[in-house]
Amino acid sequence: MPDEKVLERKGFLGLVTWAIGGLISLGLGIPAISYLIGPSLQKPEGQDWIRLGSSKKVEFGKPTLFKTTIQRQTGWIVNDEEVSAYIYTEGGREFIAFSNICSHLSCRVRWIDDQDQFFCPCHNAVFDRNGLVVSGPPPRPLDRYQVKIEDDQIYIQGV
Ligand code: FES
Question: Among 1, 13, 62, 158, which has the minimal tally of Cβ within 10 Å of its Cβ?
Answer without folding.
Answer: 1
